[in-house]
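In the previous chapter we treated chains in isolation. Here, by contrast, the input contains two separate entities that must be folded as one system, with a combined length of 732 residues.
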Amino acid sequence: MGAGAAPRLRSLIDCRLIIVTGKGGCGKTTVATALALAAAETGKRVALAETGHDEHCPQLIDPTAPAVGYQGRELRPGLEVLHIRPFDALVEYLGLQIGMQALVERGLRQPAFQQLLAAAPGWRELITLGKVYYMESLQRDARRPEYDLIIVDAPASGHGLTFLDVPRVVQSAIRSGPLRRNAGNVEALILDPGRTRLLPVSLAEELPVNETVELIDRISEQVGVPIDRAVMNRVAPSPYGDANDARQLETRLAELGDDADATACDVLPAPDVMAQCCAWRRERFELGARYVEQLATRTSLPLFEVRDRLEGIEGPDTLLEIGRQLLGTTPNGRDAGE
Amino acid sequence: MSEKPTPEEIVGSHRIVVCVGTGGVGKTTVSAAFGMLAARRGLRTLVLTIDPARRLADALGIETLGNEPKRVRLPADALEAHGDIELHAMMLDPKGTFDGLIERFSPNEDIQRQILDNPIYQHASGALSGSGEYAAMEKVLEMSESGDFDLVVVDTPPAQHVLEFLDAPRRLVEFLDSRLVKLLVHPAMAAGRWSVRMFQRPVQGALQLLERVTGVGFLEDLSSFLLAIDDLSDGFKSRAARIESTLLGPQTAFVLVAGPSREATRNAGVFLDHLEDMRARLRGVVINRIRQWPGEEPAADALLRDEIPGAERRQLADALGDANAADAVIDAVRDFACVANQDTRNVEPLTRYAETNRCFFRRVPEQRRDVHDLDTLDQITAALAHSEEKLASP
C-alpha cells in the first residue's frame, strides 16, 4: 500500500497473537477492536484483551455494554473481550501455582502485601503478559486451541517498550526458579515469528511518526518482537485533484468573494470561508502524505493506511470495515486473496 | 469573571506548574508554550519533561535534551523582537536521578555500593516502569528549590491515571514503612512488635508463597536490597513527604491539557475527578488543537446536516464553471463545519467546569504546521495569553 515494494506478508489473520501498540491518542484501541471484530467474523475464536486502567473496547463494540471485567464476556459470536487487571491476574496465577485461589486472594489482600505490590515495579507487565501466555496455551480440545487469535490492546508506546521488555529484564534479574521460567515462556511466545506480531499504530503527524520510528527501532534492537507492518491511522482524504488544482480552486473561490451573485447563499458560507475550508483540507492532506512517506522510508515497513472518518468512529460497522481492510478479509469473512 | 486567573497570573504567582492530561493531546507543546509565556515575563523558567520521547526538544527547536537544564537559544530575529529570555529545558533521566538520590541519602559508601550493585535495584531504578515517576517528582522539587529558577513547568508522562505519578512519593513511603519490608529487614523486631497472630501468619504465608513462586535468589536479592535501603529510608521518607506537600501546596498550580475529540474530553473528565480526589489545585484548562470555524457567522444548520439546497450547489458550480469542483468545495466546507461544531460541543463540559471552578480556560487552535520551531510555538503562546472573552465566538 504505502511502502512500494512490500515483502510477502503473512496475513495478520494467521497469527496467534497480535499486540497493538502506539503513542497515546493514535487510536490503538480502535485498531485492536476493529481487528477483533473482523477476525471473529471469519469464524475464528478471538480474544480481545485490554490492558489499560479503564475499559474502552467493550463500549466501542456496543455503547450500552456493561464492563466485561477480568473474566471477560462474549460480545459477538466468537469474540470474547476481557480486561486484564494485573491484580486479578496475579491472584489467578498464584492460585494456579498453589492450588488455593481463595486463600491466595486473602493473602494478597493483606495491607502489607498490597503496599509491596503498589511499590514493586514490573510485576504488572509480567503478569499481564503471563495471562496472555496462559490464554494462548489453553486448548479447547486435543486439536484446537481455546482461542485462535488473541489481540492485545497494549500500553501506549512510552510504556509499551517497558511492557514488552519485562520478560527479558526479569530473566536477567532473577537467577533461577519458577518466575524465571515463566518469564522465559512469555518471552518465547512474544518473540515467535510463527505466532506473534507487534502492530504499531501511528498518526500522520510529526511526533507520532518520530515516536513510532523510535519504538520500532528499540523493539527491534532490544526486544525482538516480530514487526512486519505498521498502521497509519486517520489519514486525511485527498482534496480536489492534485495539489495544483486544489490551490487554483482556492484562488478562484477567493476571487468569487467580490461577485455578489455567488455570495448570496443561505446555507453555504461566503466564498472566502469556503476557500479557507478547502485550504484546511489540502494542508491536512499534504502534511499527512509527507508523514506517511516518512514513516514508510524510515521504518522500511509496509504501511496500512486507515482513512480518517471525520466525525469519529461511529459504532461497530465502521470498525468492522476498518478491521476487514487491515486483515485483508472481505465482508463475508473469506480471505480477499491479497 | 474577573476572579478567574489568567495564565500570566498563574505563572507569576506559582513556583511549579504541572501540566497533566492523557497522551496525544499535545501536553508537551503546551508545557513548552507555558515556559515561553513565563520566560517572556522575565521569569527564569525551566521546562522539565518526563517523556522519554524527544518531543520537548522538538517543540523548542533544540537538538537534544539531557538530565541537566539546557538553555534555549533564540534565533536572532526573535531576540530582536522580544529581547532575550531565560528559558531552560531538560529531559529527565530516571536512573541517573535515582542513583543521585541513593548517593545523597547513603550513610556511607559501602551501603551506597551495596544498593547500586544490587540486581533488584538496577532493574527497579532503570528499566522498569514506576521508578520514573518517583524520580520525576524528586527532580521537580530539586529544581524548584535550587534557586536557579523562578518557575518550573512540568510536562507529566502520558498517564491514564493521574495518581500514577502524583502518588509516587506516597507509595514509596508506604512501601518503606510497610510491615512486609520491616519483616524482611528486621524479622526479629517485627515479630516482637507484631506478635499478634492475626497479622503474622498471613505475612509469613505470603513470604513462603513468594519464595515458592519466585525462587529463593530473588527473595535474597530483595531482602538485601531492602536491608541496604532501610538505612536510607528516613532520608527518603522526609523527602517524599516534602515532595507531596510541595505538589499539593499553594505554590503549585495544575493545568489540565485536553484535546477536542469526544474521547479526549471524556478522558479529561476522568482526570478532573482524580485531581479533585488528590486535592490538587487545578487552575486552568487548555484545549489544544481545536478546529475553529473561520466564518464570522456560525455554520448553517442545514450545512451541518449536509442538506445543501440544489440551487446553491448549481450556483456555485456555475460560478466556478465546474460541477465536480463545486462538489469538492462543498465536501470540504461541510467537513470543516462538522469538525468545528463537534469540537465546540465536545469541550462544552470542560468550559463549564472551568467556569464554576475558577480556572482559566483557553483554546489553542489547530496549527497548520507541526510545532517544531519557535515561530509556531509563539503562536501557541499567543493563544494562551489571548483573553478567551475576545476569542469566543458568538
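Confidence is low (pLDDT under 50) at residues 1-8, 333-338 of chain A. Chain A is about 50% helix and 15% strand. Compare these points with the single-chain example from earlier in the chapter.
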